[in-house]
Structure formats: C-alpha cells, structure tokens
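Put briefly, the fold is written as integer tokens. One such record reads:
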Amino acid sequence: MKSHIHRIREELPLVLLFLATIWGVFLLDRILPLERLGLIPRDFGGLIGIVTMPFLHSNFTHLLNNTVPLAVLLTLLAGSRTDSRAAVILVAVVGGVLLWLFGRGHSLHIGASGLVFGLAVFLIVSGALERRIVPLLVSAFVAFTYGTTLLTGISPWQAGVSWDGHLLGGVAGGLVAWLLVRKTPAA
C-alpha cells in the first residue's frame, strides 16, 4: 500500500464538505422523517443505517456534540500519512457492521459518535503503530483530549446513549488502524 503523504490544507475542503453534508442532512431531517433510516441491529431494514447513521442526528445538541470532535479528528487525520478517505469509510462501515451484528436489538442508532470514537481510537492506535514523533504526539493529544469521553461513552448505564455504538466504533477504529498502518511503508 502506498503512503498517502498529504497536507491538511489539501484535505480541508473534504473535511468541510463532509461536515456540511451532515448539517445539510440534519436540516433536511427537520422536513422529512430521515431518522427512521438509522441503524437497527439485526433488522434487515436497519442495514441502510450502516451508511446513513453518521449523517442523522436527533437534535441540535446531538449534532453539535458530534460536529466539534469530528472536525478536530478529521483535521488531524487529514495531516497523517494514512489514506484518510479510506480510514473514514472503513471506520464508519466496519463500526456500522459490528453494531448491526452485536448492538442492542430493537434500538435505533443514529449519529456520528460511533465514527468519532472510531477516529479517536484510530489516531491513538495508528500513532503507536507508526512509531514516529508526530503521530505519537497526535496519539497522545487525542488520548489526553478525548480519553475521559472514550471511557465514559462506553458506559452502558447512560439512558438514550448508543454506548454500544461508541464501543464498537472504537473497536472498528483500532482494527482499521491495524489494517491500514501496518501496510504503510515508513518514510
């Protein structure tokens, strides 16, 4: 696999486009009942949620709580050597598949928090795997900044929180980091 050396400014338009799409879907959801397209574990009708879940949010607070860390993590990812597009897609899809297979049944999962947890874990694990100073610093920054959130976000006693989506998103982030980073040649 080739190294994807790029600069943040080169990928920033894609980061902004991704975030704008999430906000656009949120605004469209105020008119159309899009939330019903979320992920429902082990329900074949809920399979669509593997792709749609990160774009659907229940309210403005939910959207904002995902937008800020997503913007930070996507920007950090954009400055890495990893194929950031592949990383985002794989974390979202693998996390969604894991949630569909192992999540709490009869519950509707929406929001980008599984992706947020996945990207945070991805950046932590990839920094450790790369063993270069900048990725290690990014890894330490993410662990310090989001560590408490990562731990509390997987606590099952929170009503109305997709803790299993957070947990399985984090698992997906670790798996994807291992898959992508171990194949990237050191430079």
